[in-house]
UniProtKB/TrEMBL annotation:
This is Probable nicotinate-nucleotide adenylyltransferase. GO terms for molecular function: ATP binding; nicotinate-nucleotide adenylyltransferase activity. GO terms for biological process: NAD+ biosynthetic process. SUPFAM superfamilies: Nucleotidylyl transferase. It catalyses: nicotinate beta-D-ribonucleotide + ATP + H(+) = deamido-NAD(+) + diphosphate. It comes from Rufibacter tibetensis. Catalyzes the reversible adenylation of nicotinate mononucleotide (NaMN) to nicotinic acid adenine dinucleotide (NaAD). Belongs to the NadD family. It is an enzyme of class 2 (transferase). Residues 6-165 form the Cytidyltransferase-like domain.
Length: 192
């Protein structure tokens, strides 16, 4: 089985993530896409980060009706911050018969050369990149690397940062979150 892994903070999960994951699951040779909820990105501050169980719960709510997508909390039981190479290695040992690929928005490819053991990731895994506006400059050698494929998918200028800002300012996030996620956010008064 070919499994695409979309790593993220999902703080919160929004329609940008869902469209990206669903696009990859249905328009590439992948059989399924798993969303990997990271407790702590090594590059991001933790002050605006919601508890990992809330973020995991929202991902579960968001993908409940989509059989092409799955979610894993594997990084909750691993050392923090979450280094992707360690998780990939762990998953590959656990699921010997699966072929894993990495999925990322273009913004993450721009900083990829700073990731732990990024050459090792490139040696062993395909990387599928989804275009994203406002991405930093991507090293040409990375974009043209034989293991990197930039997928021609529509640009969606949506970020969790923007959604958190709207929620904090009491502005509408209608259509940016799925209904079950929006209900959870409002019921628990998250990001206020
Ligand atoms: N609108 C989008 N288009 C393409 N890729 C996206 C989009 N939103 C998120 N991604 C990708 O999904 C993955 C997880 O993203 P993440 O959870 O950091 O969301 P985010 O919206 O970028 O969050 P934040 O605004 O808090 O930084 C990353 O690879 C990111 O590049
Ligand atoms: O492994 C690394 O060095 C590394 C550096 C930066 C980010 N990552 C991972 O990339 C994923 C995307 O992060 P985020 O917060 O932008 O969603 C998340 O799972 C991070 O743990 C991983």
């Amino acid at each position: 089985m070919r499994v695409g892994l979309l790593f993220g903070s999902f703080n919160p999960i929004h329609i940008g993530h869902l469209i990206l994951a669903n696009y990859m699951a249905t328009n590439t040779t992948l059989d399924t896409v798993w969303l990997v909820v990271s407790p702590q990105n090594p590059f991001k501050p933790s002050n605006s980060l919601l508890h990992e169980f809330d973020r995991l719960h929202m991902v579960r709510l968001a993908i409940a009706d989509n059989a092409d997508l799955g979610v894993t909390d594997i990084e909750f039981r691993m050392p923090k911050p979450s280094y992707t190479i360690d998780t990939l290695t762990y998953l590959q040992e656990k699921y010997l018969k699966y072929q894993f690929s990495l999925i990322m928005g273009e913004d993450n490819l721009a900083t990829f050369h700073k990731w732990k053991n990024y050459e090792q990731i490139l040696d062993h895994y395909e990387i599928l990149v989804y275009p994203r506006s406002g991405s930093g400059k991507i090293t040409e050698s990375l974009k043209e690397h034989p293991k990197v494929t930039v997928v021609p998918a529509p640009l969606l200028d949506i970020s969790a940062t923007f959604i958190r800002k709207c929620l904090k300012e009491g502005k509408s996030t209608r259509y940016l979150l799925t209904e079950p996620v929006a209900e959870y956010v409002h019921a628990k008064k998250l990001y206020q």
